[in-house]
Design a protein that fits this description.
alpha+beta
Length: 79
């Protein structure tokens, strides 16, 4: 599983990254976590509002900070 956090380094993006790590701890899943800060790369996902969350290449959230529980549900759903 690959999880990407899309954001230019704002506080919300950093919080989302922390919540992703907490969610991975809750689920016990292993994933490659990558922070994407390049605006061109972010726009390739069609994301116009950050932070964005991508799981296995699929954009699952845009413009909000998900809680660890919400992210854990998305991780479980993705497999």
């Amino acid at each position: 599983m690959k999880i990407e956090i899309l954001g230019t380094g704002c506080a919300k993006c950093k919080t989302l990254e922390q919540n992703v790590m907490a969610a991975l701890g809750k689920t016990g899943k292993f994933a490659e976590v990558k922070k994407v800060e390049d605006i061109t790369e972010i726009m390739q996902y069609g994301v116009m509002s950050t932070p964005g969350l991508v799981i296995d290449g699929k954009v699952v959230s845009v413009g909000k900070v998900l809680t660890p529980d919400e992210i854990a549900q998305l991780i479980q759903k993705a497999g």
